[in-house]
């Protein structure tokens, strides 16, 4: 019985050259998603102690743990004008949304690479069909068609998995941004009202 790693290697080989960029995109997407999950959980997890300390006005909360809440409120306390307060909020939102545009790019590019692999596999099959006048082995044509289907399926799998992960991250980010807005109103010391 073949191991999972053997099956994966076989799939990559049968999928052709386009499988390598698809594999790279899947590893990159996974790394970005895991980094964002770690960041959001550590820095702004639901009901985090840092959020509580900021809400109750603990001045040491600004330096402990580096939570997104504490950094935002600290920046808002130092803001002298409304435009400075907006810049602080924009910076906080930017830290939260890191890698989201890159994930969108992977969601778009992965199916296109899958289609490219499909085209290359079909071209290979047609070249075999129209090639030499020798007897044609159907398994050779089947290999080109398999390449086409494998790359399409892989591209769609990478895109769909990344899309689901991205939407979970975006939903969590929107909740945190809502909390930041509340903290800005409660703890900014009026800079956002100037």
Task: Give a quick summary of the entry.
The protein has 194 residues and is an all-alpha fold.
Number of structural units classed as domains: 1
Helix content: over 70%
Summed up, the helix count is 7
Please report the distance between the alpha carbons of the first and last residues. 70 Å
Pfam family, one: MotA_ExbB
Family: Belongs to the exbB/tolQ family.
Subcellular location: Cell membrane; Membrane
Protein name: Colicin uptake protein TolQ
Provide key terms for this protein.
single chain, MotA_ExbB_proton_chnl, mainly alpha, Colicin uptake protein TolQ, disordered C terminus, 194 residues, transmembrane
What does this structure look like?
This protein is an all-alpha fold. About 80% of the residues lie in helices and about 0% in strands. α2 runs parallel beside α7 (about 140-185). It is elongated. The termini are far apart. One of its GO terms (cellular component) is plasma membrane. It is a multi-pass membrane protein.
